[in-house]
């Protein structure tokens, strides 16, 4: 099949949408499909490049002011039209109802090309980063939800990564098939084991200490300050907090660590490579995800596949991954004391930690990227057959 993926966020941007669209493109290409991704330029100007075995057409872009290193393409219509006409895809798969996604939908409809859309976004993802708009956040969120329903109502098939995400999306708002298809991860890459010694040295991570790990973007929507405050309540000379990632909120979180008196027990790695992410997932004793706005959380899945217990908040779709009392503990949103208690218990109970780790591995097995690719191939075949 000739598959066009319209991705308003894509590699090298770091977030779940970008990670999924890249994994999807690579996986489908590995299976022999001809895959083309339309994504924002990293330089501002149009160009094309290969990422392994699939082609990326980069369209003109500008920096997005509310997220670090994010680029957006606010006027991609003519470029997207030209790419679609030349490529003549069998199916178009939209990753976001944003500028490139909107243009791709417009021209797919015009040229009668089957359309699949995956919704990754929650209004909360944006609103936490737009603090100046807090007084009018509710009507803005409502407007975004209504726009999403109208946008997706014109495609042939909709997927979201979890059943919880479908509930939040509101499948009753559209008359289109809606299905939960996991983002998936490569279980051959994320496995339990020991991190290489040089990794500890490179990032200044202490050995022989119990380590709490967070891996992901450091933006306001992630509520990382809640984790810092929780860790500060249980920090001892035998524990350490590892924060992996970068984002617009990193300096504020570093300052908070200093104010809490835990900066000497906290490592901020900044942005790391894909291979380093895999290795750093092996470092910790428990993985913490304080974000309340996750439609799945690829980082949490990666931690589970690496054999880590999880402490997360009972919000978004995290409850489908962190199953309370099975592979970790679910806490209320922004519950500093609850998160602190859960972390402390897991860190200091070897038997419980091993029990949770084994359960994480079992749950992660259901999210192999191979299953995700199988399902999307079938969805593509089905929508093509109906056109």
Overall description:
The chain has 387 residues and is α/β, with parallel strands linked by helices. The protein has two domains: 2-184 and 368-386, Rossmann fold (3-Layer(aba) Sandwich), CATH 3.40.50; 197-367, Glycogen Phosphorylase B (Rossmann fold, 3-Layer(aba) Sandwich), CATH 3.40.50. It has helices at 16-30, 77-87, 99-110, 123-127, 137-152, 163-169, 197-203, 224-234, 250-259, 274-280, 298-305, 336-347, 350-364, 369-386; strands spanning 2-6, 34-40, 47-51, 54-59, 62-63, 71-72, 91-94, 115-118, 157-160, 178-180, 210-215, 239-244, 266-268, 286-289, 310-313, 328-331. Helix 1 crosses helix 14 (369-386) and helix 11 (298-305) crosses helix 13 (350-364). It is globular, with a radius of gyration of 21 Å.
Short description:
The chain has about 375 residues and is α/β, with parallel strands linked by helices. About 40% of the residues lie in helices and about 20% in strands. It has helices at about 15-30, 75-85, 100-110, 125, 135-150, 165-170, 195-205, 225-235, 250-260, 275-280, 300-305, 335-345, 350-365, 370-385; strands at about 1-5, 35-40, 45-50, 55-60, 60-65, 70, 90-95, 115-120, 155-160, 180, 210-215, 240-245, 265-270, 285-290, 310-315, 330.
């Amino acid at each position: 099949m000739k598959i066009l993926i319209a991705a308003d966020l894509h590699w090298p941007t770091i977030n779940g949408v970008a990670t999924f669209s890249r994994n999807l493109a690579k996986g489908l290409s590995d299976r022999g499909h001809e895959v083309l991704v339309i994504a924002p330029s990293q330089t501002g100007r149009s160009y094309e490049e290969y990422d392994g075995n699939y082609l990326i057409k980069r369209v003109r872009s500008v920096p997005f002011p509310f997220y670090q290193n994010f680029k957006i393409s606010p006027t991609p219509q003519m470029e997207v039209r030209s790419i679609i006409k030349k490529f003549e895809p069998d199916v178009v798969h939209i990753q976001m109802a944003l500028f490139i996604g909107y243009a791709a939908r417009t021209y797919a409809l015009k040229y009668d090309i089957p359309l699949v859309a995956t919704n990754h976004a929650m209004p909360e993802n944006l609103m936490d980063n737009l603090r100046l708009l807090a007084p009018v956040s509710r009507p803005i969120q409502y407007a975004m939800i209504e726009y999403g329903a109208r946008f997706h109502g014109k495609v042939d098939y909709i997927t979201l990564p979890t059943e919880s995400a479908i509930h939040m999306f509101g499948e009753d708002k559209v008359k289109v098939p809606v299905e939960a298809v996991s983002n998936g991860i490569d279980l051959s890459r994320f496995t339990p084991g020991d991190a290489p010694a040089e990794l500890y040295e490179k990032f200044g991570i202490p050995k022989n200490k119990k380590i709490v790990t967070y891996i992901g973007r450091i933006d306001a929507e992630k509520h990382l300050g809640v984790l810092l405050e929780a860790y500060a309540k249980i920090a001892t000379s035998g524990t350490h907090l590892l924060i992996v990632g970068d984002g617009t909120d990193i300096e504020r979180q570093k300052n908070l660590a200093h104010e809490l008196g835990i900066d000497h027990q906290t490592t901020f790695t900044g942005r790391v490579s894909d291979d380093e992410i895999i290795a750093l997932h092996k470092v910790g004793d428990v993985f913490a995800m304080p974000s309340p706005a996750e439609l799945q959380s690829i980082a949490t899945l990666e931690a589970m596949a690496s054999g880590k217990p999880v402490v997360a908040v009972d919000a978004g779709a995290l409850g489908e991954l962190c199953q309370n009392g099975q592979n970790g503990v679910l806490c209320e949103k922004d519950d500093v004391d609850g998160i602190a208690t859960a972390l402390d218990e897991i860190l200091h109970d070897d038997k419980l930690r091993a029990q949770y780790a084994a359960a994480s591995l079992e749950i992660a097995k259901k999210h192999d990227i191979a299953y995700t690719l199988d399902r999307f191939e079938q969805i593509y075949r089905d929508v093509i057959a109906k056109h």
